[in-house]
Amino acid sequence: MGRVDRCQKRQQMSYQIYLGSASPRRIELLKQMDIPFIQRVLDVDETYPAALTETAIVDFLAKLKGKAHQSSLNKNELVLTADTIVWHRGSAFGKPANRDEAFNMLSSLAGKTHQVLSAVCLSSAQKQWCVHDCTYVTMKELSSDEINYYLNNYHPLDKAGAYGIQEWIGAVGVTKIEGSYTNVMGLPTEKTYTLLQPFGLGNANKMTHQTP
Fold first, then answer.
1. What is d(CA 149, CA 87) in angstroms, rounded to the nearest whole number?
2. What are the φ/ψ torsions at residue 121 (nearest 5 degrees)?
3. Assuming Cys at both sites, which of 18, 45, 94, 118 could form a disulfide with 79, CB separation 3.0 to 4.6 Å?
């Protein structure tokens, strides 16, 4: 069977997609894309080989999260998993373990440009397809008072790099973005849309919009 035939066969099937993420931002973005899904979250040990760097880290972790679901997937079921890190000065910033670590992360990012790297993996019972994206984010210098205000009033501990660009700190502290804004939120929507299309998911001519 040729590549075109395989794509046509995929599009003819009706797929159930699961979102293997607890992230409120990814849930929100997938809903904005009008992609029907069911949330299914599994605990995964997000440890990666120390030799990995940059996009290799997020690719590895997004696939690792997908692999945890594969044994339970039926033929017409797919799971979407993702991972996001901040890459800055040769180091990966994931979710901070505590407030002090969050403060140190934001202090390090202030006044500089960093990369936000996300990978998205679509898994069937037997195969995986993965894409990744990179966005350059520049922050202004942040005072200790500004960082503490953000830490006291928002929830940085569940976000890579200790910040959410859609929150106060993104509005007042980010001076420049090069690349996908939704990638910084944790799900590069354009690349996710393209990833889903061969399976008949996200095709505008097949979608129906339901008003809440």
1. 24
2. -125, 130
3. 18
Number of domains in the chain: 1
Which residues are catalytic, by number?
83
Q: Can you tell me the distance from the alpha carbon of 85 to that of 93, in angstroms, rounded to the nearest whole number?
A: 6
Instruction: Give the model confidence (pLDDT) of 96-143 as tens digits.
Output: 999 999 999 999 999 999 999 999 999 999 999 999 999 999 999 999
Q: How many residues does the chain have?
A: 212
DSSP sequence for 132-173: EEEEEEEE----HHHHHHHHHHS-GGGSGGG--TTSHHHHHH
Q: Which residues of the chain have pLDDT under 50?
A: 1, 4-9, 12, 208-212
Q: Scanning the structure block, which residue is given the tokens 């794509």?
A: 7
Q: What is the biggest distance separating any 2 CA atoms in the chain, rounded to whole angstroms?
A: 62
212 in a structural domain:
no
What are 204-210's contacts with CB under 8 Å, separation 24+? 207/34, 209/34
79 in a domain, yes or no?
yes
Q: Is residue 74 part of a domain?
A: yes
Other CB atoms within 10 A of residue 178 CB: 11
**pLDDT for residue 208:** 45
Task: Provide the domain limits for residue 196.
Answer: 3-205
**How much is the pTM?**
0.88
The closest of 183, 71, 95 to 131, measured between CA atoms, is: 183
Q: What is the pLDDT of residue 13?
A: 61
